[in-house]
Amino acid sequence: MGLAPAVARYLVYFQYVGTDFNGVAAVRGVQRAVGVQNYLEEAAKRLNSVEPVKFTLSSRTDAGVHALSNAAHLDVQRRQNKPPFPPEILVKALNTHLRHPGIRVLQAFRVPSDFHARYAATSRTYMYRLVTGCACHHHLPVFERNLCWALPADRLDVAAMQDAAQHLLGTHDFRSFQSAGSPAPCSIRTLRHISVSPGLASPFVLSQESRKLQFWTLEFESQSFLYRQVRRMTAVLVAVGLGALKPAHVKEILDSRDPLGKHQARVAPAQGLFLKSVIYGDLGHPSKRSSLLHPTGPTVWKLTVTLDVQPGLCWSSCWTSLYSLHSALELQCPSQPLLPFGPYYPVSAPQELAQDKKDRCDTPAAFGAAALEYPASLSGTGS
């Protein structure tokens, strides 16, 4: 009696325009509403797995909310003892059979059998887009109407919004910003980053309108968020920007721990919200790729890249340099896609810290030796 075919677990990144969906989660039963997960699992049926493929989502988003990069894990068990799909073949197969143009699978990676897309995530970042100078929603270009919140104002007091945002940074009980129906047993969260800044000009705005419309971007980063926490924080910060609230009111709302209060009951519209990224520590994510382990792949060797990161240097330029190197190596070995880019170690002691990943530095500062692993079929040495 032959052995059962091996089950391969994958981490898959995907994006979607949320306008047509009742959220990302699958809608079961005979309802006419449908989630992004429904389409993904329908496409996965064509993989002909022994057991039906189920997507375990990293982050749930509501109806109308978009994702630049969400994530999920799935198990595939091929028939007739066939070897697991290479990740790039899995991506191609899913995209080929997806039946909605608003969904795209970005990348896939083999992960250990005990990996969990929701619980293993170490960071999630959401982005919210606003636009001022628009008297009503119908004055927006049609291409932008489902991608931002049009405010009936010519300007925002951004400085006041930034002051107010500082009250939300750090570890707090965010019960005041939690909507009813949240399954979370604890409302304490740590908001690591929050910003309010001018957004990029929309390419869909006509030249005669461009002087009137100003786009703004709010970003929030934490390991996890409460139900509708980002949209409720956004609504309060917008109220500060419009002069309806003072920055000090935000602290009062936070300290009240009352989700039914007068001001915190506001919820920003879904269409302006985007899940920007999900990060998995050592496993990273598509835009910051690295490879510190390949659980089921070939023998690997380590290439250490050292950057002399000077104070004041734009951190994104460091990512760009390392990403370019990573992409060049991928071209040399297309059959073995590299895992995402991950942790960095201080230049002063990369080897010591590499032996204890718990002590790695995860904040963008003046450091930069990166440990990467690549398939043994690559030739040459790294330094």
From TrEMBL:
InterPro entries cross-referenced by the UniProt entry: PsdUridine_synth_cat_dom_sf, PsdUridine_synth_TruA, PsdUridine_synth_TruA_a/b_dom, PsdUridine_synth_TruA_C, TruA/RsuA/RluB/E/F_N
Chemical reaction(s) catalysed: uridine(38/39/40) in tRNA = pseudouridine(38/39/40) in tRNA; a uridine in tRNA = a pseudouridine in tRNA
Cross-referenced Pfam families: PseudoU_synth_1
Gene Ontology process terms (BP): tRNA pseudouridine synthesis
Source species, domain of life: Eukaryota
Pseudouridine synthase I TruA alpha/beta domain residues: 15-119, 164-280
Keywords, sorted A to Z: Isomerase, tRNA processing
GO molecular function, one term: tRNA pseudouridine(38-40) synthase activity
UniProt-listed Enzyme Commission number(s): 5.4.99.12
Keyword presence, Transmembrane: no
Entry-linked HAMAP family: TruA
Family: Belongs to the tRNA pseudouridine synthase TruA family.
Protein name: tRNA pseudouridine synthase
Native organism: Octodon degus
